[in-house]
């Protein structure tokens, strides 16, 4: 999403099936017995006849979902702008050097074809776009499989997105990728580590109200109830003031922000405008002058990849929780 822009065999099988992956029967003693494998992606069953070997990923969060499972050797490359966000701090940082940066612009069918891709991993508003014709079906028509980021799944005719809790979407995608690439052990481990880290975040009675500011001056672009940012805020011990909006990333009104008087503002940081420019705008915008977060200078900058579905979500929850604990109750 760009705005103007991981026991026993039985337990492991149960855990992955619960996350949306279905395990195909295996034949003992054969290296390829894992395939074909069928997973459920955005409510649709999709069968992969073999392990993908030339994957193209779009955007930093989707790329890192793939890299976090140690799949750089299965990637043809990735598409993303220059703003990966503190790559040196992630355990899978070396994966970036093991694959190819295909484009700093938008995902296109030509990029996938030139890379001889056999799978495109993207999402609605994370590369897939009906307006441009870059859709899962368009790639399938070219003989290229697709996998859709679960946070971006669409539900209903209204165009709303999100068919599950965003963190469940994260675990679902990790489990599904584990099945698709036959790395279930890695996926199960990463899911367990992520759950443990989130469960370890202490909670308190007071849940500070939080406004997520992505961009926009005439009207703010922010996170609704189906956005990963909403789950990050909630698991960190806060309350998203726009959590009643039934969408992922959505335009709201400044009047609503003022009325709901957030105690904390989280700035979504990516290429342009810069986080510094966003902070300067918020602090100088007259309608916000009496909002609690502005009066008390409680503004936290977080990287884009922290706030969309990605393997960085658990660390982001811990970071935000530490900040929210500085907000006095009452």
From TrEMBL:
Keywords: Signal. This is Iron transporter. The keyword Signal applies. Pfam families: Peripla_BP_2. SUPFAM superfamilies: Helical backbone' metal receptor (SSF53807). InterPro entries: ABC_Transporter_SBP, ABC_transptr_periplasmic_BD. CDD domains: TroA_a. Residues 1-20 form the signal peptide. Residues 54-330 form the Fe/B12 periplasmic-binding domain. Belongs to the bacterial solute-binding protein 8 family.
């Amino acid at each position: 999403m760009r705005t103007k822009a991981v026991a026993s065999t039985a337990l492991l099988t149960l855990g992955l099936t619960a996350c949306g992956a279905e395990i195909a029967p295996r034949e003992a003693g054969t290296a390829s017995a894992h395939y074909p494998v069928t997973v459920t992606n955005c409510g649709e069953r999709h069968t992969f006849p073999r392990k993908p070997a030339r994957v193209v990923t779009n955007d930093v969060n989707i790329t890192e979902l793939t890299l976090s499972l140690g799949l750089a050797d299965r990637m043809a490359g990735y598409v993303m702008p220059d703003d990966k966000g503190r790559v040196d701090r992630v355990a899978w940082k070396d994966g970036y050097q093991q694959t190819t940066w295909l484009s700093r612009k938008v995902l296109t069918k030509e990029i996938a074809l030139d890379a001889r891709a056999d799978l495109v991993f993207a999402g609605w508003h994370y590369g897939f776009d009906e307006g441009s014709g870059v859709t899962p079906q368009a790639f399938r028509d070219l003989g290229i499989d697709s996998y859709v980021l679960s946070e971006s799944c669409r539900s209903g005719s209204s165009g709303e997105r999100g068919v599950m809790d965003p963190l469940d979407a994260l675990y679902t995608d990790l489990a599904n990728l584990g099945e698709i690439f036959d790395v279930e052990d890695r996926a199960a481990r990463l899911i367990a580590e992520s759950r443990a880290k989130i469960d370890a975040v202490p909670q308190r009675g007071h849940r500070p109200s939080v406004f997520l500011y992505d961009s926009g001056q005439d009207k703010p672009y922010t996170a609704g109830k189906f956005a990963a940012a909403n789950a990050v805020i909630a698991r960190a011990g806060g309350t998203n003031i726009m959590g009643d909006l039934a969408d992922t990333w959505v335009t709201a009104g400044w009047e609503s922000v003022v009325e709901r008087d957030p105690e904390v503002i989280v700035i979504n940081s990516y290429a342009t405008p810069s986080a510094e420019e966003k902070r300067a705008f918020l602090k100088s915008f007259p309608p916000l002058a009496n909002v609690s977060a502005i009066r008390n200078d409680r503004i936290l900058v977080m990287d884009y990849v922290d706030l969309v579905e990605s393997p960085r979500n658990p660390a982001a929850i811990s970071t935000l929780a530490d900040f929210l604990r500085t907000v006095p109750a009452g």
